[in-house]
Specification:
Length: 141
């Protein structure tokens, strides 16, 4: 029985100065953490950022804009080319600013990954061990 799925995609980091630059996005999903998708972004072997995203939010963000906090996701279309735009906001700085990153990727590739996660744990069938959750909270995880 398959309990996890991993996929590496080439996405584009969008900046005001250089436009789009390729970045590797390593997507991971595990049945024992059924609500989350982990996205680790790297370039030249260095981890740039790691985010845990709500799986349902990621799926919805391919079709319509979602999110209003640290993560915002929405569709982008250029002709027949469908992208998903992920916007990440980091912790506030002492000067009041925040780190901010925008990454875009090919929507069908992200949907394919999500389809694989749905074969492992179907939407609506997610279950979490309350004992494991409480142990993690008590341990400070």
């Amino acid at each position: 029985m398959i309990t996890s799925v991993r996929r590496t995609l080439v996405m584009q980091l969008v900046t005001e100065t250089t436009g789009r630059s390729p970045v590797m996005a390593h997507l991971a999903y595990r049945a024992d953490d059924p609500f989350a998708v982990t996205m680790t972004f790297s370039h030249d072997g260095l981890v740039l950022a790691r985010w845990r995203l709500d799986r349902e939010m990621l799926a919805e963000g391919i079709e319509r804009p979602v999110g209003e906090g640290d993560v915002r996701i929405g569709p982008r279309a250029t002709g027949s080319w469908r992208e998903v735009r992920l916007e990440f906001f980091g912790r506030p700085h002492s000067d009041g600013g925040r780190q901010h990153a925008v990454v875009v990727g090919w929507a069908p590739a992200v949907l394919s990954f999500l389809d694989e996660t749905h074969r492992i744990v179907a939407p609506g069938e997610e279950r979490v061990s309350l004992d494991g959750f409480l142990a993690e909270v008590i341990a400070g995880g």
